[in-house]
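User: My advisor asked me to double-check a structure prediction for Glycoside hydrolase family 13 protein before group meeting. I don't want to rely on an old file, so could you generate it fresh from this sequence?
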Amino acid sequence: MPTPDWLADATFYQIFPERFANGDPTLDPPGVEPWNATPTRENFFGGDLAGITEHLDHIVSVGANAIYLTPIFEADTNHRYDAKDYFAVDHRLGDLDAFRRFVDAAHERGVRVVLDAVFNHCGDGHWAFRDVVENEAASEYVNWFSVEGFPVTPHPKPNYRTCSGCYYLPKWNAYNPEVRAHHYSVARYWIEQGIDGWRLDVPYFINHSFWRGFRDVVKDLGDQLYIVAEEWREPEEWLQGDLADGTMNYTLRDLILGFTADSSIDALAFADGMNTLRARIPEGFHSGMLNLLGSHDTERLLTRHRGDVAAALRAYALLFAAEGAPMLYYGDEIGLTGENDPGCRGTMPWDESEWSPQLLEGIRSLSGARSECPALRRGVQEVRAIDDDTVLMIRRAPDGETSVAIVHRGDGARIPILALPDLASDRTWQVVAGDATLAGDGSLMLGTGGVGYLNAFPNEAQQ
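Assistant: Sure, here is a fresh prediction for Glycoside hydrolase family 13 protein from the sequence you gave:
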């Protein structure tokens, strides 16, 4: 079954719902923090679904046409990876009507919605686990989990299987047919509520047979529904046609940030790594890759670049030019900073005087070029190094359109880009993004940002 076609044109925006916007203060939990307070792993700020709905136009303005939400189901924590009821919206986020309003408003703007499928574990407040705690061996759900003895004891060490040893995250027994039926029912239910796909949380902790069944359930409801697996290492196992449409592309993230933020690799190593990664991804799955630079599990992008906006924009230039769907993590587009969890989960500032206009406008320019140039979305990718500090990313579309992204680490340069015969011949080039100009000798003059996007059709195609 092919990867959903819409992914080739998708740009995602990831939201941690508790921290994006507070649209309905009546839902605020007791002890809610002021919106701009320091995030911790325990505190709440009152972010909700109404807040997301209220700010959909901002999401669209940065070029996004798909949203990935971290968990929204009833839970005890602010991150909600500890579900208590997979069929209910967390009461601090809203209710099912609020969710439907959000999905409808997103779809009206051409924005798809992907939810987080957290099926390896639940929270210790989940009704099935509570039944095991209370009724022990007599519970009808005792085999839904892996409990070693009674009473069920979380401390000092849980006597039941958990996610990574975390006592409040009991692990589901995904071999149990009743557990599978429960999880598959969850998948169906939220698709029936209008979602467009699922992101699989820590899927490597569950056997492949479970995920094959999950894919069958989802794809039976529509072959354009998206399944993307969280994967930090090797993507190939998920891309054989029976599990997922793509993976979260952390390998690409490592390559881009190694070049733009850390200077741990030069342009030659970057190009080699990118071309090797492309060869590893099976044909038909490149457009399904979810390409990211930051997430709820990493430090903020501007923090990684030590506050250097120009360097951060170089990273985004590579992201938006690469095969796969680029993803922005909420707040990164306006310069939100923070170290890894909990620092990366701060609240979105809605006072525009606190935003970085240079970063925001740069991202809008890059995403706009991607939207306007089919080759940047659907062209086959090749990456070259011009010198140690200059990367050339080429995207060639079947109709002859070619797009080139050039990224240089430094304060500007003259790059003999159009001296390359396979780029220069029979084409009229134009700069579509970045601080760059074409010189008469076929060189590209880069400004201080070190970024330029060019686009061209064969001359005969323009006539």
